Amino acid sequence: MSSPLAQPAWKKLQAIYDDYGKSYSTRDAFAKDSSRFDTFSTTFENYDGSKILFDFSKNLIDESILSTLFELAKECNVEQLRDDMFAGKHINTTEDRAVYHVALRNRSLKAMYVDNVNVSPEVDSVLQHMKEFSELVRSGEWKGYTGKEITDIVNIGIGGSDLGPVMVTEALKPYAHPRLNVHFVSNVDGTHIAETLKKCDAETTLFLIASKTFTTAETCANANTAKNWFLQRAKEQSHIAKHFVALSTNASEVAKFGIDTKNMFGFENWVGGRYSVWSAIGLSVCLYIGYENFDQFLKGGEAVDNHFVNAPIEKNIPFIGGLLTIWYNNFHKAQTKLVAPFDQYLHRFPAYLQQLSMESNGKSVSKDSKFVNYETGIVMFGEPTTNAQHSFFQLVHQGTKLIPTDFILAAKSHNPIEGNLHQRMLASNFFAQAESLMLGKTKEEVEAEGTSASLTPHKMFSGNRPTTSILAQQITPATLGSLIAYYEHVTFVEGAIWGINSFDQWGVELGKSLAKVILKELDADKDVETHDASTKNLINQFKAWA
Ligand code: F6P
């Protein structure tokens, strides 16, 4: 494959950027064009009839920029790669695997093949197992070793085996079973599991050991600690069967750990960790919100898949989202992207998106094994707001960096308290932030307020800071499924244009293997003599102080 830089559309975009793109004014564009909102906004209709409005009109684009970005997507064969993903081809080339998380939310149960095998029946049978199990636990029929109902679920996993389940259970708390508490232990810092176990009673706690590989050091350490804690209380090895289940692809390691593989919920290696919340890794979600809601979550994702596959590029919402990243990252030289949900239930959404985006596209080698000479993955960050407004939005409004931003709001709150006042205040900020970032405040406007000459520059806002406003009706399981699938496909489009493999993660390996070596050195009595001087002295000081 050739570099995106070699594509005619890339050169055209560079020429547009140099000509007028870099100083494009959305403020002027709105003033001149009364139909700008209609041209650059689109409404996604979900499978259940609910809607999500994507307003791209406050971005630094006109029709010519956008259509050239579409040309770029065509020249980079993004549609072909998308079709290859949906056809189960091994598009994860460095690991020689299909990328088939989309098959997990194929609730229409159409045939979906990987290596000539239709995976739909197997996917559905794991879902049926999740349904039966979650119904037993939720109804109270599943009892702990002393005959009590389960009250606490502890998911032990890290990365994709943690961030998705945490984020979704938090986001869908209004749908939670009233008896069940969910806890997530991910960090190998003993504090995480110690503090969690303080809240649990062995008789009523169910541990989900969530690990695709079942070899991840942090998860194995935390799982062993949980098992020891449990056995100190329950005494009998046989009681493990009622209190530990495994969510994994690795049956032999699950059995070695001591979990009966009857209590294992499997998936295949074509599910990447950061794409796995739709799989058995989502069991904590299914237990917490119930199978019917989990099914709606999957269907919301499936509806976006159908749109991504079928809508022409020009109307394709994830294509537009992904191409905007290219415009800002590669032409405007923006380094970051901010996602700010106006929604407290979505407080872990930015953290989830960080893994999705940065583990997928933080690569500097193209699929044909060449080091790239252009920028790839963005630094993704975010926080729920209005809190974020009172911490780092100063930089977003007046700093020297361009920070393209997505704002997310649901029109209907799950907590319409005080006559819905909180929701109206929240919404007023959602609109005000996007408007003020776009409009800014000119010198003349500041001066007209009688501001002194020395203070005037401090009170000016350049404006033209791009935002996409995503307005949902309500954060339901279906809506959340759609939002996640939207960002997955945005990430896909970005990686496809950059010509990188968005589905491996070699970058996490070096640190893991060095940590193994150092762990042995920490166990030894003597000082270390190896390593660079900084690392050696830090290790020895740690040993002296620990
Ligand atoms: O180290 C990164 C990573 O491999 C992620 O991609 C993955 O989500 C996480 O570790 C956890 O892996 P596992 O589910 O195999 O324990």
From TrEMBL:
<dbReference type="InterPro" id="IPR018189">
    <property type="entry name" value="Phosphoglucose_isomerase_CS"/>
</dbReference>
<dbReference type="GO" id="GO:0006094">
    <property type="term" value="P:gluconeogenesis"/>
</dbReference>
<dbReference type="GO" id="GO:0005829">
    <property type="term" value="C:cytosol"/>
</dbReference>
<keyword id="KW-0324">Glycolysis</keyword>
<protein>
    <recommendedName>
        <fullName>Glucose-6-phosphate isomerase</fullName>
        <ecNumber>5.3.1.9</ecNumber>
    </recommendedName>
</protein>
<dbReference type="InterPro" id="IPR035482">
    <property type="entry name" value="SIS_PGI_2"/>
</dbReference>
<keyword id="KW-0413">Isomerase</keyword>
<comment type="pathway">
    <text>Carbohydrate degradation; glycolysis; D-glyceraldehyde 3-phosphate and glycerone phosphate from D-glucose: step 2/4.</text>
</comment>
<dbReference type="InterPro" id="IPR023096">
    <property type="entry name" value="G6P_Isomerase_C"/>
</dbReference>
<dbReference type="GO" id="GO:0006096">
    <property type="term" value="P:glycolytic process"/>
</dbReference>
<comment type="function">
    <text>In the cytoplasm, catalyzes the conversion of glucose-6-phosphate to fructose-6-phosphate, the second step in glycolysis, and the reverse reaction during gluconeogenesis.</text>
</comment>
<keyword id="KW-0312">Gluconeogenesis</keyword>
<dbReference type="GO" id="GO:0004347">
    <property type="term" value="F:glucose-6-phosphate isomerase activity"/>
</dbReference>
<dbReference type="GO" id="GO:0097367">
    <property type="term" value="F:carbohydrate derivative binding"/>
</dbReference>
<dbReference type="InterPro" id="IPR001672">
    <property type="entry name" value="G6P_Isomerase"/>
</dbReference>
<dbReference type="GO" id="GO:0051156">
    <property type="term" value="P:glucose 6-phosphate metabolic process"/>
</dbReference>
<dbReference type="InterPro" id="IPR046348">
    <property type="entry name" value="SIS_dom_sf"/>
</dbReference>
<comment type="similarity">
    <text>Belongs to the GPI family.</text>
</comment>
<dbReference type="InterPro" id="IPR035476">
    <property type="entry name" value="SIS_PGI_1"/>
</dbReference>
<dbReference type="GO" id="GO:0048029">
    <property type="term" value="F:monosaccharide binding"/>
</dbReference>
<dbReference type="Pfam" id="PF00342">
    <property type="entry name" value="PGI"/>
</dbReference>
